[in-house]
């Protein structure tokens, strides 16, 4: 998909490749093909293997790649990259990097449990989503999350990359409720077809969402 001269491509699972000006941005690379363009910027939402995979990262890493992530990832990744290029973030903060800015958002579960009273993604672990601001275009990647109160504060999102598979993240119904609340211009469903969930979840989300939905 091309949106205001920015190419946004869903690869697999929750992985996105963004071409903006002459820069290449990846979010949560997983099961990448070989010979993809190298990353100028790499955003990682959290430490789980389907979002942070060292083998996939190495496929797109170059010496100058800047990696933006949370402490849970950084403590491992800084053993094998140039730490000058590592930016450690926390939820609900604003950052500027080179010629663009981004915000972090909270990403956690409220009703997806691995055991009684134990959610898959606890709030206290400080996992994140990202809102990239690229020349005024706001692209939101929600990370692994439920429809949480913090999501209701999102404003003026152009493109929302939204998990829909259920089990560990929002169901199609919950994801639709979320986008119907904060009203991005376009929503792209993700987090299905590899680990959990199927294309049917994406189409269910599209059926329920009251915003434009592109299934990539």
Summarize the structure in words.
It is a single chain. The chain has 216 residues and is of the alpha/beta class. It is built from four helices and 16 strands. The protein has helices spanning 54-60, 71-77, 172-182, 199-208; strands spanning 2-3, 6-10, 16-20, 23-27, 41-43, 66-69, 86-88, 94-97, 100-106, 113-115, 118-119, 128-134, 137-141, 159-163, 186-190, 212-213. The strands form three sheets. A seven-stranded mixed sheet has the order 1-2-3-4-5-6-7. It has a seven-stranded mixed sheet with strand order 8-9-12-13-14-15-16. A two-stranded antiparallel sheet has the order 10-11. It is globular, with a radius of gyration of 16 Å. The N and C termini lie close together (8 Å). The mean pLDDT is 96.
